[in-house]
Amino acid sequence: MTSRERVLKTLKHEEPDRVPIQDSVWGATIDRWRREGLPQDVNVDDYFDYEMAFFTADCTPRFPQDVIEENETFVIQRTPYGGIRKNFRDYSTTPEIIDWPIKSKDDWLRIKERLYPDETRVDWESVKKGMEYHRSKGRFIVYSGVVGYDLLQNYVKSEDLLVLMITEKEWFQDMVMTTAKLVMEMCDTMIKRGYHFDGALLCNDMGYHKTSFFSPQLYKEEIFPADKMLCDYFHQQGMPVILHCCGNIKVLIPYLIEAGFDCLQPLEVKAGMDVCELKREFGDKIALMGGIDVRKMSCENPAIIEEEIATKFEVVKKGGGYIYHSDHSIPKDVSFEQYKRVIELVKKYGKY
Fold first, then answer.
1. Strands 84-88 and 74-78
2. Which of 291, 288, 295, 305 has the alpha carbon at shortest distance from 330?
3. Which of 99, 159, 303, 332 is a plausible cystine mate for 29, CB 3.0–4.6 Å?
4. Kind of pairing, strands 322-323 and 287-289?
């Protein structure tokens, strides 16, 4: 069974030969693994036989990028969104946002003029080579994009963005819909040029440690219409839709199912997302991807991560509808040997 066949069968809530495997790894983690034995000429996707490959278009306003300041620890850069971010030099954590480009509605209108579909938003040669390579490996080819509240945090300070959802609903909805349409239109541009996708991944973080950033009602009124538009479009292309949404967003799941999402990822354990509980409550309506506690991967006692995988897989793999992924991404405190053991355990307990 190819990876493409395995993922498609899983997303249809059918049991394949084994649980599909996909993960996200920090660049700093890969650097560590290179020092610990990961071959220099082999990428992580090939070494661990990840089953998906992701392609996208540049859906930013395409402002010039430059380095404002850097030292031995940090680098401060201007982003293509027009904001300013501070990163560790090894990009091992989520960046600190220092400044945002939108502070008024006029700022938004100036940026909106730059958000139009254009064939120059795609690196066609790289996409062509990448797709040919990953198709030769039998992988599930994914069109990915950032949308909704998560995307808008690149433009507007989070606290101000939450206020806008109450005080400037039409403006907020215009930003959500405009940016969503560009993501959709660029996928359509790529499809019309002959590039085929098996599925879509949309990224929209909407939760924190205990619950969602905003109420289900606000989601339904102000973000749901764009999400449904996107899911309807992708489904028309025969593409199931995976939603990446960090934090605890359990209260939003019924609305995400209604919008048309086919799979939810990454199911952060530390935010209270219990993949077994979610499987029992929603597993017949939406597939699940993730939920394996990354903190347990770095434990010195290997029995801890084995119990994590064995006990959860016993519940979540039944009837299909589950794809392995860490509950966020693999940090640099997980050694190469520890992670190799994780994948061995996933293959062992993921067999049907």
1. antiparallel
2. 295
3. 332
4. parallel
